Amino acid sequence: MEQSYRWVWKHSQITNIFYNGGCGLVVSSFLGFIEIFDSVNLHIPVWNSAHSDQKQLRECGSICAADYSEALDLLVFGGVSGMIHFIDQTTKKHNKSV
User: Fold this and answer.
1) How is the chain split into domains, by residue range?
2) How far apart are CA 77 and CA 3, in angstroms?
3) Which end of the chain offers a freer environment for a tag, N or C, measured as fewer CB atoms within 10 Å?
4) Alpha helix (H) residue ranges in 42-90
């Protein structure tokens, strides 16, 4: 029997959701939040913009594109503001392009 989950994310409307084994489950929102969940246990948050770089990420506006590069181990995302953001998956450090 297959398991299904019902889950409500508290950070506004979801704009992107994808899974990658190297990165985990990535969810982004209309209000510029992004959260990464463990690749094995999808209920465990690994990184959350609401608790780290909230002010910088809010400048992103609505996140409308996100992807993960296995070669660079980077999560890259952008929003309606035209800014591109990078999160190093090893250190979970956030950088913003200028």
Assistant:
1) 14-96
2) 30
3) N
4) 54-58
Instruction: Enumerate the β-bridge partners of residue 65.
Output: 78
Q: What is the pLDDT of residues 52-88, one digit of tens each?
A: 555 555 566 788 888 999 999 999 988 888 888 888 8
Quote the CA–CA distance of 80 and 96 in Å, as a whole number. Answer: 14
Cα–Cα distance, 13 to 61 (Å, whole number): 13
CATH number for region 14-96? 2.40.10
pTM across the whole model: 0.77
Strand 34-37 and strand 24-29: the pairing is antiparallel
Residue pair 49/33 in contact by the 8 Å Cβ criterion: yes
User: Which pair of tokens denotes residue 96?
Assistant: 């913003």
